[in-house]
## 1
Amino acid sequence: MNIIKYISAQYRLLIYATLAMIFSLLITNLTRDIAVPNILQLFILFLLLAYIMRTVDDIHDYKKDRRRHKKHYLSKNELIFLLILIVASFLGLNFAFFNINGVFSLLLLAIIFIWELFPLCKVIFLPLTCAIYLFFAGGQDTFSQYEIWIVLVILLFISCAFYAYKRGGK
């Protein structure tokens, strides 16, 4: 029951599902491959990625959040177990959907796990993730379209602005 509270706390599920759908529709629209199975595949992967990022952040900040008396729905060990389940699902689905190209999901996971040490990783994560899934959905020729590059640059600016906003509050 606590997992359900954790997943849905502070409208997380609604926010993450909305963002996952936006990125799924963006990628399928840019690759002109708008089909329900493609949208659902990307939606699930982006949703899992959002929860991986959230869980990694919660594990990293667990002690600090306890000192601030923030509400915890799961213990640190439960968060670690949940992270293992989500990561395994994410990896399995990437390999199921994209065959050997699913290995690139390891790169995305590595970036998430090291970005507390290297803050630049937070800035490049969104455009890199979209570039990887654009490649999977549309192939190499996708990057010959100028619209793709414009979107990737916009995503980079959004990432930089969000990072600057988050760092400004600390």
Note: The chain is about 80% helix and 0% strand.
## 2
Amino acid sequence: MNEKIYDLLNDVKTDLNEYESHPLSSKEARQIETRLLQEVRSMKKENRKNNKKATFLKAAVSAAACAAVLLTVSSQPNAKEFLSGTFQKLIAKSEDEKYAEEQKELYTHIGKNSTQLTSDTGETIVKEKQTQSQVLKAKDAGVTVRASDVYCDGYMLYYTLVLETENKTLVPDGVDGIYTTPNKESVPSSIRIDGEYDGAAHLVFQKQQDGSFITVQNCCLYSQPNPKTYRNGDILPIDIDLKQFYGVDYDKHDKEGEYVLTEPLNGEWKLSIPVTVETEKNRTQKINKEDNQVKLISVTKAKATLNLELQEPDYTASPYNDKYNDPDIAVKDADGNFLQWAGCYEKMNEDGSRVHYITVIDTEKEGYTLEVTNKNVDGELIAQIDFLVER
């Protein structure tokens, strides 16, 4: 039944030129969106009850018209109200980069679902969870580092750090970025996520148009042999201890071809960020569709990501004959856009098969396609599985 409903919606053609474009507030936009979603839900119920294709098609056309208005609203500048100043800077900076559209999509989806950190963000957390006090800003040697935004859905963790300084040792003319530990001789900085050491903190702060420097960090929470399971409201602490900064000019290279760095600036910058895990919007759907021994088991929709669980064969065996056991895996939406990967983890079995967990940035469509291609042999398609994500 669901497939028929989606087919009907896909057949609806709407001339957007019929509708006037009026700038609406974000509150008005959310009200329209809520009414649209309520209408679609009622249409689905009515269709299941009456099983009348004509009734649903008539309602679908009405919903499409409402969607056209919402589409106009979403294109207004007021959409920026959903993003923090940090993510707005990142999007503005990415416009001149090679993968501008991909960066914009990532920052928009993660940004609008992130929590902006303030001095009182963790006040309730500290009292109720009895965790250590939060430290969102650290200043030393003329450099200020502050935590800006966090996103955590139990699968992926994103957090942004902003660095501001006028220290001429660190940012002489031409400096494009700031590193923490660019080489083995650097004083090691560290990051601990939920008590687990996340390795030396190789952070890269990119210069923004206003002269500040920003880094976006992510952590795939299940990409380990025994991943932790987080529930809604759990606290995931991030402890950051930075010891040293280097400025870098991407237009200058030394004799070995390495970037030219400034002299190191030493100090101590410690941040402690209690992150609230938000899983209340997570919805898992069993798919259980198979093609050529590749099986899509389930899809979990989170706030800004889709999390796929796959069962895959041993690709070194016939008929795949891929000695590297490393095919190309891609997810496309109904418009043919490839979804960005955000994280993955493979659990290998003794027989060479595996369970593969993949996180991609959600484009908020309903129809998707999983494609597996034998890139190391002949590039031919191994498996193609279409699936729907309920909204």
Note: Residues 1-79 have pLDDT under 50 and may be disordered.
## 3
Amino acid sequence: MLNKNIHKLYMFLCALAAACFLSGCSATELENKSFPLAVLINEKDGQYQACYLSQQLSEVANERADGGNMTAESAQGSTYYETHNTFEKNNRCRLDMSHTKALIFRNDFIESDTFEVFLETVRRENTYARNTLVYLSDSSMGQLAKLNRSLEVPLGSYLEQMTENERELKEQAAVTLGTLLNEQANASRTILIPVIQEENGLPAVYAYEVLQNFEPKGRIRTEEAQIYYLLAGQLERMDVQLDKNDQVRLSHLKCRRNFILSAGEVTQQLILTAEAEQVSGKASEEEIEQAVKDKIERACRVSCQLQGIDLSDSSRCLAMLAPDVYDEYRDRIDEYMENLNYEAKVQVKTVSG
């Protein structure tokens, strides 16, 4: 049986080698390709601008090689398709996006009509993998290219590692190109796109841009984003600072919700259960519960009242959990937001570390 399997493997490798030979696979073809690990995209004066942070051929097999092996080449055009072709023509190479880790948009790009056209283009052309990470930045292309050169690993790989190593968020919290394409088609969710900037020579997330029903609603801080992830069931753990002496770590977080409709007013009850581990201090379970309750209600209320953002992403739950509310506000989402109130109920169980 072992010899038979070895023979099958040998035949497969021979067939693969023959296919590469017949299809013209060669080092020459690879040398005529550019492999961007990150692509920076902007729109200015009606022109697309793209900067491709590409990896030299000798390092393609090592996707986390030294950042010094990177090149940054820019192109522009009236459409993204034209920009893409302009780059290939000017650099006499083909763009290969199979290694691309991240797309980084200038923040104002997603507020323009160009953003949706871009998504329609990449959907039709299948330019990028759907799991390509998405970020925003206020930094210029030049600043990000400079940052890319200064890192020990390329910027695209650094952002991928940063996402993989995130200890608080679950994997599904990451915003990818597929997330945006799905939301463009359905316009039914609230999603948060991380905004990066350079801090102490490294890229870091310092805010989140909110897309609600695929409309930009402005930025929120990381504190408000934490509440969004908590209520979405995308938080692995949550550190809560009650005061300078008392800090706890919540885990096994579960959140369910009820909706109460009365005289046009909608009260959403957010019911959270968790285990609490004392990091420092001796806060009681009641004190922890009150602190988390206040944190949830304050973040939801302020975001709703000041920016029209529903951190609880409640509208997508109405048809299943609250059909009476759904029928009342089916085509009047703005009125729903105006009449939405939040009530948090928190129950924690203290466990030893």
Note: The first helix runs from residue 2 to 22.
## 4
Amino acid sequence: MKKSISILLIIATLFTMGLAACKSDSKNQLVEEGGLEAADNQFGIEDVEVTNKKGEVVTDKNGKAVTTEVNVRYELDKNGKTVAVVIDQNGEDVTDKNGDPVTLKNSSVEITTAKKGGKSDKTTAPSGTKKASSTKPTKTTNAPSQKGEETTGKEFTTLPIEKDKVPTIAEARSSSKKKAVTFSSKDQQIIKSMLEVPGLYEKDSYENSAKEIPANIAAHVALWMVEREGFNTKSYASSTIALYLFYYFGKTAVNFKLNVNEKSGNKNITYNAKNDSFTVTAFEGKKQDVAIQKIEYLGNNNYYLVKANVTGAGGHSKLYAIIQKNKLEASLGFSVKALKWE
């Protein structure tokens, strides 16, 4: 009944370079070569049965158990067994009436390694905070109508890890099976906003198959994700930033906290190893403007190719992006899987 759509990196060569890596050892099993701490947190979504106040499983009219999806962080318990710790949208552990973290012990993902660290730090945000308005699109973006286009449905599928394949930009552009689609104005605004993360074009291209998310674009994304939450604080737990990057990219940002200080070139966010936290000193003003021209459905696991014109992105005038429609974060509803600036 449980399923996971956690997107995990498949890395074979980084161990000799002294970096952490994740690789698929067998179906839904992970081997952490560099340890859980080095690889940051692994996140995913699990299906859980809905219960009433009496603790009884709620069923539908056909007698089938009603389920709901929850965000989780995978870790090992004291017996070396994988458990999925239920977390909220800020990456904080959800606790029961006794203050203990709520866990799903029958997780669909297994991790075989020794856990070195303890519980993650938590970020406390003042109540009543508002999201930063500067991250919202300034106007509605409507892609021109395409001949024979189809509208996107409300439902979408989720595939097991071994069947999920993110197409490359080149594969998507040359595909004869892609179909032009119409996204709602709201969805187009969200996508436009995600592609207008300041400085995202500093890396000419990024593919989901890359061993690591480039530290420079991950830093820009982390700042944008923090700003849109509107928290009135400069300090964020490592797990919070890792979760935000997971939402945006749809996969764990391996080694981001180890690379951000020296490899990102961004002084607005720094990692503090002493207390496993990030410090954000400033947000970034808008740079590029994205005008969506066409969106095409690519199949498999709800992947789409976005073609757009851009201004204010250095010497780039066009952008191709692979996005995935998902439920990782309710206010986004999408993840950016690949980028190509031309």
Note: Residues 215-229 form the longest helix (15 residues).
